## 1
Amino acid sequence: MQVDLVNVTTQDGVRLDGIWRKPEIENESKLGVDVVLLMHGVGGNFYGAGMFEDYSDTLLERGCAVLRVNNRGHDPISRVTVDEEPKRFGGAYEVIDECRADWKAWVDFAISKGYKQIALWGHSLGATKSIYYMAQEHDSRVKCVVAGSPPRFSYTAFSKMAEGKEFEEMAAYTQKLIDDGQPDYLVDSLNPYPVLVTAEVWVQKYGPEEKYNILKHIPNVRVPLLVLIGTQEEIDLMTFRGSRQEIEQLEGELGNLEFESIPGADHSYTLNNSREYVWKLVSSWL
């Protein structure tokens, strides 16, 4: 497998790395787009094994180039030098709003290489960020978005679930840490999703403000948007419970939104041939 190692620097000075793969015959994509920007979820990265490794090969076979890249939420904890000062990033420290600079830098890169039909395909938090980016930036260079299992961050919904008491206790704990001047204290959270994050990041994602609730942002995405959620992850994870019904309601109201439920799929699409099923959905939709 031949790849080009590439990097970009965001407008706020963060270097991000990735790989760029080109089909053997360029300009003959059978998918309606000429490059797909693949964005990992919380704590992920471009070099790890996973579904995007599989999908990269199938995209190339259909004549479509691939940019499989890092955003600043890569790996659980990472260090980056910004303005000559070391700074902590990674899933534990990322501010979701800053994804706008990451996505823009990679779209800029794709444009600089001559691509004109760009698709975003994010998984998990990468899907939520892709929705957020397009809702906020309305980047006309992006032609469509595939959002694979975007978690819904809804304090109201989580509080009403069976685990609501434990969730509210975690919310109170993280807020107290912030009030006590310890916003960077790392907490090992189980609810609503098992993840290691700072108190400030936990409140940012799951707190009462619900700034990153995808249900608020989906109506503001102007390009074709495909949202996928597995039926098993709806059972396993609080962040997906109840999402399907609400997204299906939006689907009936929005002409650019299509929702598909993935039968038997867990969050990583490892069960019941889910990855093959997802590829058929995505390739047909593209």
Note: The longest strand covers residues 15-21.
## 2
Amino acid sequence: MKDILREIIYRFYTRSIPALTKRTCHFPVVEGRATVILGMRRTGKTYRCYQRMRELMDSGIPQEKLLYLNFEDERLKNFSLDDCQMILDIYYERFPDNRNETCYFFFDEIQNVHGWERFIRRIIDSENIQVTITGSSSKMLSKEMSTAMRGRSLSMEVQPFSLEEYIRFNHHLEEIPEYICDVEKSQIQHALNHYFQWGGMPEIQKMDEMDRDNALQEHYNLVTSRDVKERHKVANPDAVDEIAAFIFNSIAERISISGILKYLEERKISTDWTTVKKYISYLCDAYLFYPVALEDRSLARQKRNPVKYYAADLGLIRAMSLNPAGDNGHLLENLVFLQLHRQGYQMTYVQSQKTGKEIDFLAFHPGSKDKKLIQVSWKMSDPSTLKREIEAFQSAAEYLNATEKLIVTWDEEKTLENNIKVIPAWKFLLEKY
């Protein structure tokens, strides 16, 4: 194993860091803590590490003070906790003078090494090393870090491209200007049309369109195989796929466990309430789906009510749905959710106990304490739609005393009574409202 590890480490210093599309997600760095990059497979965690490496090198730090290891490398399949010391031995054997210098180690998909957290904690405590680790399982990493790594890590999540990143990657615009004129607006709207169709998974951006659905379906299979079925030793893999199919075809709709059980029963798949709930949690842990519960001061009532689910990417929804054209309103709602999640908001949906009217998101930011009520409506031109949305806000605003009220549409913009702002999707996604 030592010869294999030496070959991998030494080869890193013969390669240049690849060209990158700048990601906008913040990279938290605090001395004495590991930076933990989380997210679904192939969303760009590795490239976010590369971006950090380039930033360090641009600041004058030589590549010799960096180390990158990918534990998905099949040559490291049998790598164990007992082998971890060899990383330090081989590195300092090559660069002995760096033992007294600050160095930067990047460990990709480190959850593949059982007990990894003890090694990371040791080098944080005993070596002058700033550590960055990545992983594609939120619960496994958080469970491990809650013991050996408690208080010694800061986490960030990498998602598929935002609209801004998509625009830069595909060279619609090199940068988003502070003031957007009609020319830039048409370019942004053109980009949004494609983004709304294909989503932001980095790996499909340069593919022919006829190959993209297959690539996205293969990506789903990779995520569920590695991070759900194998990792959790799932006894009923067919149930996992059917549950995922149900959610993909019910995006932004209220979903109950009993509804999923009925769906599975129709497909002759036998399981129970506890197993379905467990499998959904595995899919969410792998960052395929995100749950949004009902806003309710009573936790017991909240748990009894149906949950809405949103997918990590619009392209995945279309590739996995029985109706690839989809429901534009629900797809736009998914896009709004992803943008709010990217900004760090915590979300629930609101249903008035008096009127039954619903608001898609109560978004609360734990840092700024900002609170927004957000409704998503594809079009507002129908007077009955306008009336319904205003009444929903009146009910919800009275219940929650929220101050900022937004309706995100595809392309409409105006201000309604009670300071309800109607804004087009592109402005919301680029934070230009």
Note: The first helix runs from residue 2 to 12.
